[in-house]
Amino acid sequence: MNETTPTLLVNDLRFSYPDGHQALNGVDVVIRRGEKVALVGPNGAGKSTLILHLNGILNGGEQVQIAGMPTTRKNLPQIRAKVGLVFQNPDDQLFSPTVFEDVAFGPLHMGLPEDEVRRRVGYALAQVGMGDFAGRLSHHLSIGQKKRIAIATVLSMDPEILVLDEPSAGLDPRARRALINLLDELPLTMLVSTHDMLMVRELFPRMIIMDEGRVVADGKTAVLLEDTTLLESHGLEKP
Ligand SMILES: Nc1ncnc2c1ncn2[C@@H]1O[C@H](COP(=O)(O)OP(=O)(O)O)[C@@H](O)[C@H]1O
Ligand SMILES: [Mg+2]
Q: Does the pTM exceed 0.85?
């Protein structure tokens, strides 16, 4: 990879679900290293479907590339290590008895030595401000804490890009604030789908609007948020 290779390249991605519903109708996205990008649009726009293609849960083949590597079947183990995908519901991500085991799962699965696994778990938990939680039971945590642990489970993989699907949905104001501060501080390339337009304005210099399986706008958040006609025609509101 050289300096000009984007961290994420999506080229004319099309996808229909088995029932025939076409959820993606030719999506193009380029994200460069260090960018923090919001993905917005009404329910059913295709945001989650796009996100599921980024680490090969849905197969994007050559149409989706991570740091120059196509998401073809043979590359999937490496792709899964490069793309830190955090699902909307942390219960879909946390399945081990303890926080330590959940955060260690990815690095262990990569075959890293035990010392390195411990080092990564410690680092990931510290990054999300949960350094004291390694021995706790994942399913006893609050939703805000679970969300942070879910983020730690992908940070421990040292990903090229962090991809979050509606991370602030269902959080109380304090947990939401903690999440926003965390995302602000993490020095990572990220793509974050959300309906939280206040968070978009505060955190993301660039915003991509999807509707009906297409990208309908992609540009500076400050500019797009002034375009009331554009926002209204895609079910969005200026915060
Ligand atoms: N498993 C599925 N089977 C069939 N259609 C689906 C499935 N998941 C999502 N869809 C449809 O695909 C479209 C895009 O959905 P989705 O990607 O979840 O949108 P968003 O995340 O923007 O709300 C919607 O019309 C939705 O109903
Ligand atoms: Mg969704």
A: yes
